[in-house]
Amino acid sequence: MSNVVLITGATGGIGEAIALTFAKAGFDVALHFRSNPDKAAALKALCLKENVNAEIFQADLESADEAKRLVDEVTSSLGTLHTLVNNAGMTKDQLFMRMSEDDFWKVVHTNLGSVFNLSKAVIRSMIKNESGRIINISSVVATLGNPGQVNYVSSKAAIEGFTKALAKEVAKKGITVNAVAPGFIETEMTGGLAEDIKQYYFSQIPMQRFGTPYDVAEVVLFLAQSANYMTGQILHVNGGMIG
Q1: Which of the following CATH numbers is that of domain 4-183+212-236: 3.30.2320.30, 1.10.357.10, 3.40.50.720, 1.10.260.40?
Q2: Distance CA 243, CA 241 (A)
Q3: Alpha-carbon span 147 to 139, nearest angstrom
Q4: Where are the domains of the chain?
Q5: 214 catalytic residue (yes or no)
Q6: Considering 152, 200, 201, 214, which one is annotated as catalytic?
Q7: How does pLDDT run across 118-177, given as a tens digit for each residue?
Q8: Distances from the Cα of 180 to the Cαs of 65, 124, 127, 137, 198, in angstroms?
Q9: What is the DSSP string of 151-172?
Q10: Is a pLDDT exceeding 70 seen at residue 189?
Q11: Which residue in 101, 32, 112 sits closest to 66, CA to CA?
Q12: Confidence of residue 198 (pLDDT cuts 50, 70, 90)
């Protein structure tokens, strides 16, 4: 079995944790970035310390051609792709009445479009090999909704529907398609919250803490390594906020 994983948006907090977790598990890692080559290079160096192969790749995943080029380059450099982790995403928060059409579609095209483009780019090879894992990163807000994030919530809810539909199409070919939906995770964004706001969020979480990027990464690794009979599922990693 090939042990090559492609992680999109690898330079973000969750993406970095996923990359290092897979490297420690012995996967060769393809690290996608869009606009931060220095951070990508630093992450590559950390992965190489785990005695695996690691390479960085730049691409704009809103483009189907760029997505196909990325997958071709990863395959040429590291070998047959076993796992795709669709982690790349963005936010442009604004109350709906003030949200521009451009900001709505930019978020949808980036978050949902990248999942479509990358999955399309890898699916033929996975079907041929009768093996593969596609793991999409969603969010708890796809279930809960969130004010000021109509665009982001729409994209993540659509990703969950995409996951369930594609899973049914390719299951007989030995390919699993699942999603992980993180709740509130310790990132630069949550680290900047005022203490009273943090306490409010804690009150909504039965475990009374934010998750770490590695809490998410371990679930992604489980889906890649062990979940052979699990597909079309949304795994919630949120400290008990919702089941």
Answers
A1: 3.40.50.720
A2: 7
A3: 14
A4: 4-183+212-236
A5: no
A6: 152
A7: 999 999 999 999 999 999 999 999 999 989 999 999 999 999 999 999 999 999 999 999
A8: 26, 23, 23, 5, 23
A9: HHHHHHHHHHHHHHHHHHHHGG
A10: no
A11: 32
A12: confident
DSSP sequence for 28-58 = EEEEEESS-HHHHHHHHHHHHTTTS-EEEEE
Q: How many CB atoms lie within 10 A of CB 150?
A: 18
CA atoms of 213 and 231, how far apart (whole Å): 23
Rg (alpha carbons) of the chain, rounded to whole number: 17
Contacts 24+ apart (CB under 8 A), 162-168: 162/112, 162/115, 162/116, 162/119, 162/136, 163/136, 163/138, 163/232, 163/234, 164/232, 164/234, 166/119, 166/134, 167/231, 167/232, 167/233, 168/232
């076993």: which residue's tokens? 82
Q: What is the DSSP string of 212-241?
A: -HHHHHHHHHHHHHT-TT--S-EEEESTTS
Render pLDDT for 89-110 as a digit per residue (tens, 0 to 9). Answer: 999 999 999 999 999 999 999 9
The reported pTM is 0.95
